[in-house]
Amino acid sequence: MVLPGMIGKYSSVVFALAFALGGCSFVSDAVFPGRGAGQDVEQSASANQGIQTAQSGATQVAANSAPIAPARPPALGNSSFNPPAVTPGVNTGTFVGQKVAQLRGELSQLQSNIVQQNQRLQAIREQLGGTSQRYHGTIAAISARLQVGTTPGNPVLVNQWNLAQAELDRLGSDINQMNSLANSVASDSAFAAFVLESTRATFGLSGAIDEDHRQLVILEDETNRTVVLIDRLLNELSEDVSRQTAYVGNERSNLTTLSLAIKNGELLGPSLGNRAFANAAPLSSSPPQAANASNRNSQFANRRPLVVIRFDRPDVPYEQALFSAISRALEQRPQSQFDLVAVAPNRGSPAEVALNTSRSKDNAERVLRSLNDMGLPANRVQLSSSSSAEAFTNEVHIYVR
């Protein structure tokens, strides 16, 4: 029942996200089952302003989320890999001397490859930096416009979103170039190891003079330094590729959430997946236990819902309020999973009950799609349906587990 004076933009979204207070630990236990009294969450001033407790029975009027700075791109390595020149030698006229000259030529070719790869690496880094700046500039412009408010599906923002998507694709292409470069460096690494082993084996050949061994010692030292340089290059490339790949993956999730924000004309924030599940506990591989409707109803009867969305009119604007509630819940317990329950009123004729049940399931699936767009993985949400004699309209309840 909606009380007078509680009509607003989010009048159909009721929150039961509870923050534990002295003498009210049962509220925290109801929202976050299995928590002890000593694990209750301390109430904050911002929580008081953003979400009301279930005890008040008040309807949530969600304010726009504060602007959240986008994740900074991971820093690229800044090393430059320039091998020292190969020390020239003299032809001693021996067989070993000829072998030393051959190895010196192979080392010179290897170092030439490193110089080219280093130039290519610096060019890719410069290209990545420029693409990243354009991408973040576009995202910042979209977020700033959403923060002050705009029309749903603003075509200007849609065009900017498409530009950001194109820049992110370019970032992915740059990472592919880094991968290709890493494969080339790995091939040279194997060749460098072969040159080093061949140099060491040459010491065992007969017919050498002292000058041959002196040149071999110098050649071995320079080959060792080249091997170390290649290893450093390969390690830095591997780290850059790993960090950038993870970053681009996170930004793709953020873009998906941003598209939902543009659709609604209001700022949400970064994808829930990026900050909710970085250290999440692994999911059990076993399927969930089946439960009949009566058992499921009794299970949820003893739990306080985190969010109640009442679909009492068309186009209920629930996304912003839902995002805020799920975000706050995940800040307290990043490993949380959720039960999404479609609740239909158990009133009227059997035909009306069946029609309400079908509509409530459609609404629940719509909310589930919204959660997925916000970055919440589908395997973190369990969907079910129920009926209630206390409900006057179709509702969707979300519980934390």
Summed up:
With 401 residues, this protein is an alpha+beta fold. It has helices at 25-31, 45-50, 95-148, 155-202, 210-264, 272-276, 293-301, 319-332, 350-373; strands at residues 13-15, 307-310, 338-345, 381-388, 395-400.
List the helices and strands and how they pair.
Layout: E1 13-15, H1 25-31, H2 45-50, H3 95-148, H4 155-202, H5 210-264, H6 272-276, H7 293-301, E2 307-310, H8 319-332, E3 338-345, H9 350-373, E4 381-388, E5 395-400
If you had to describe this structure to a student in words, what would you say it looks like?
The protein has 401 residues and is an alpha+beta fold. It folds into two domains: 13-65 and 273-400, no CATH class; 95-264, no CATH class. It is 55% helix and 7% strand. It is built from nine helices and five strands, in the order βαααααααβαβαββ. α9 links the parallel β3 (338-345) and β4.
Keywords:
single chain, 401 residues, alpha+beta, 2 domains, five-stranded mixed β-sheet, 5 strands, 55% helix, disordered N terminus
Q: Class by helix and strand content?
A: alpha+beta
Whole-number tally of structural domains? 2
- Principal-axes shape call: elongated
Percentage of helical residues? 55-70%
Number of strands: 5
How is the quaternary structure best described? single chain
Secondary-structure element order, as H and E?
EHHHHHHHEHEHEE
Strand order of the largest sheet: 1-2-5-3-4
* DSSP summary: helix tally: 9
Q: Cα-atom Rg, whole angstroms?
A: 31 Å
What's the end-to-end separation, in Å? 26 Å
